[in-house]
Write the structure tokens for this entry.
Amino acid sequence: MSTLPLIAVVGRRSAKAQGVRTEAVAIGRRYLDALRRSGAIGAVLAPDDLSTALPQILGRLDGLVLAGGGDLDPDRYGDIAVEQVSGVDPVVDDAELAATAVALELGLPLLAICRGVQVLNVALGGTLHQHLPQPGDERWRADSVAHGGQLHETAVAAGSLLAGALGPTRPVCSSFHHQALAQLGAGLRVVARADDGVVEGVELEGSDSWVVGVQWHPEDTAASDAQQQGLFDAFVAEATAVSSRRR
């Protein structure tokens, strides 16, 4: 009997949850549902537990998903926070930046979503636009599709891993964010943009492992959109190959 690949997802610290008396560790169910539909199991990791045993933990798993969430502390990329920065959790920042570095070192497939692509970028030395729109820059217009929870089309570069996963047409993407990639981290290549210029997808060049980041939320619409589910399918196919090599 084949073994389903196990995918690490770093959880979020939550003050309360139904049926839990103490602080909870949580992640949006849609991430786990999308992984399950692709034939994988999501293993939610408590960020507090990742400080000392990351190589051992990730060494037993077959891939890493970096999910959406609050903002990264701008100090992590050498900037001073503007007033719109919110939801910073230094424990989660520590955990996800470290998990990204270890996953890249181990050659694990990595799918980075929304905040996750920002974590990937910062882990590789990149920076972020702290808030959209940027004053004086018409690309970050007030009605930008890049934030506010809107559906929009995205242009994806032909021949990219992302295009291979999503198919040849312009995918309709669900975005909910107020930050975006600025200076790219080492080795990242832009492979998708929204029509207003916001970076929507990146890949890691020169890597033997599958590393893709998207600024939108594919899990939002994957249950009804085969293109968005296809991104999880492609990721899990790579994780399955990793799992098979270990057996």
